[in-house]
Inverse folding.
C-alpha cells in the first residue's frame, strides 16, 4: 500500500531510506535542517553488507569509483608488536571513502528520482494526529500529516528518546592528500597504539568530489576532556608527539598546520529498546550509537533503511522492522562496548589483554574467520528472517 513518508535528516540513513522507499512506491518528502544538504565528517568504511544496500539503491558504482577498497586492518603497538590484523574476503573488501563522496553518490540517486526536499527545516516535534504524524519546524512551519515519520537526524535528533552515555574517549579527524613516496599500502587501514591512551591512524579514502588526487583520513584519539582544549593545541608539539609514536606517518602530518585542520569528535553509546513509536521510526544514530571502532556506523544506518522499507510491505510494519534488526544491532553494540576500551581508554589491563591474549589467538583459522565476519557486518544475518540482497558476494 502506498504511504506518505516524511524523512527527517538528509544524511546517509535518510538518503538511503528516501531512495528505497521511493522505489517501493511510497510518497517521500525529505526534511533537512541545512540550507543545502551537505555531509558532515571525514572518512568512513562501508562494509560489504552496507555496499549491498548501496548496490540496491544504484549508488554502488559511484561509491566504488570514488572510494578505495580496503582489504586489511592492521594495528601495531608503539614497540612494533602487531596486535591487530584482520583481513576481508578476497571477493568482498570494505570500501573506504570520504563522507562527501558517499553523500554525493546517495544524493544523486535521490535527485534522479525527483524526491521532494524541504531545506532549512529543523524539526522540533512530530505530534500524533489520528494515527498519523505532523511535523512542526523551529520556524513555525507545519507539514503533514504523514502516514510515517522516519527520524534519521542522528545524535542531534529532537525526536528520539534515546539517552546515550558519553564515552570517555573521542578523537580528532582530518583529511589530507595522499603523500608521494609513502610506504603505506593504499588498501590498508593502519593504526598505531600506545597502550590504549593514544591511538593514531591512517585511512586511505580514494577521491573527494571536486578535488584532484587521492586522500587519506588522519585520526588521533584522546580523552573527551582534552577535546575541549583542542582549539588551543600547539600543532608543532602535537606533530612531534604523533611522529614519535609513529615516525612513518610523518608525511601525512605535514599539511596539518593549525588545530582547525582537525575536527574534534565525541562519541556516545546507547540503543533504543524499541526503535519506533506509533507512526514514527528511528533509523541510524537516532536509534543506536556507538564508538566508530568497529567501523559500523554508516553500515548500520544503511541496514536500518533497508529493513524499514522491507517491513513497510508487511503486516505490523514497525514491529517487523524492529525484529529484523534487533539481534544484529544488539550484537554489534555489545561488541563495540567490549572492544573499544581495549583501544581507547585509560585502562592498563585491557591493552595487555589485547596484546597478549587476543592478538596471539587472532590468526587461528576459526578466530580469523570470525573477525572477518565481524568487520564485514555479517556475523549475524543483517535482516533477520529476510533474504539479504547480493548475499553471494559475501561468501568465501
Amino acid at each position: 500500500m502506498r504511504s506518505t513518508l516524511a524523512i527527517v535528516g538528509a544524511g546517509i540513513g535518510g538518503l538511503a531510506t528516501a531512495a528505497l522507499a521511493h522505489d517501493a512506491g511510497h510518497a517521500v518528502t525529505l526534511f533537512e535542517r541545512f540550507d543545502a544538504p551537505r555531509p558532515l565528517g571525514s572518512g568512513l568504511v562501508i562494509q560489504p553488507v552496507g555496499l549491498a544496500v548501496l548496490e540496491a539503491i544504484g549508488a554502488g558504482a559511484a561509491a566504488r569509483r570514488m572510494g578505495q577498497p580496503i582489504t586489511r586492518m592492521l594495528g601495531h603497538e608503539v614497540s612494533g608488536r602487531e596486535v591487530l590484523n584482520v583481513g576481508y574476503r578476497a571477493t568482498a573488501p570494505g570500501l573506504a571513502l570520504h563522507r562527501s563522496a558517499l553523500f554525493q553518490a546517495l544524493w544523486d540517486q535521490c535527485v534522479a528520482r525527483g524526491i521532494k526536499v524541504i531545506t532549512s527545516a529543523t524539526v522540533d516535534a512530530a505530534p500524533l494526529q489520528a494515527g498519523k504524524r505532523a511535523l512542526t519546524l523551529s520556524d513555525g512551519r507545519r507539514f503533514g500529516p504523514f502516514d510515517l515519520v522516519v527520524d534519521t537526524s542522528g545524535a542531534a535528533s529532537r525526536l528520539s528518546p534515546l539517552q546515550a552515555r558519553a564515552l570517555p574517549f573521542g578523537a580528532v579527524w582530518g583529511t589530507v592528500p595522499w603523500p608521494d613516496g609513502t610506504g603505506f599500502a593504499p588498501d590498508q587501514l593502519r593504526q598505531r597504539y600506545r597502550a590504549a591512551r593514544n591511538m593514531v591512524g591512517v585511512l586511505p579514502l580514494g577521491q573527494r568530489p571536486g578535488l584532484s588526487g587521492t586522500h587519506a583520513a588522519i585520526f588521533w584519539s584522546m580523552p573527551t576532556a582534552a577535546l575541549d582544549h583542542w582549539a588551543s593545541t600547539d600543532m608543532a608539539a602535537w606533530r612531534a608527539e604523533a611522529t614519535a609514536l609513529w615516525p612513518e606517518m610523518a608525511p601525512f602530518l605535514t599539511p596539518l598546520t593549525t588545530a582547525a585542520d582537525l575536527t574534534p569528535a565525541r562519541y556516545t553509546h546507547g540503543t533504543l529498546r524499541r526503535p519506533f513509536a506509533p507512526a514514527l521510526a528511528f533509523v541510524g544514530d537516532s536509534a543506536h550509537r556507538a564508538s566508530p571502532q568497529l567501523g559500523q556506523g554508516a553500515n548500520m544506518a544503511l541496514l536500518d533503511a533497508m529493513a524499514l522499507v522491507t517491513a513497510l510491505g508487511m503486516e505490523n510494519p514497525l514491529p517487523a522492522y524492529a525484529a529484523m534488526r534487533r539481534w544484529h544491532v544488539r550484537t554489534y553494540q555489545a561488541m563495540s562496548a567490549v572492544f573499544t576500551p581495549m583501544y581507547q581508554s585509560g585502562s592498563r589491563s585491557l591493552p595487555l589483554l589485547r596484546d597478549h591474549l587476543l592478538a596471539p589467538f587472532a590468526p587461528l583459522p576459526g578466530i580469523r574467520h570470525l573477525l572477518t565476519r565481524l568487520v564485514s557486518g555479517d556475523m549475524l544475518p543483517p535482516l533477520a528472517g529476510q533474504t539479504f540482497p547480493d548475499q553471494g558476494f559475501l561468501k568465501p
Remarks:
- Confidence is low (pLDDT under 50) at residues 391-396.
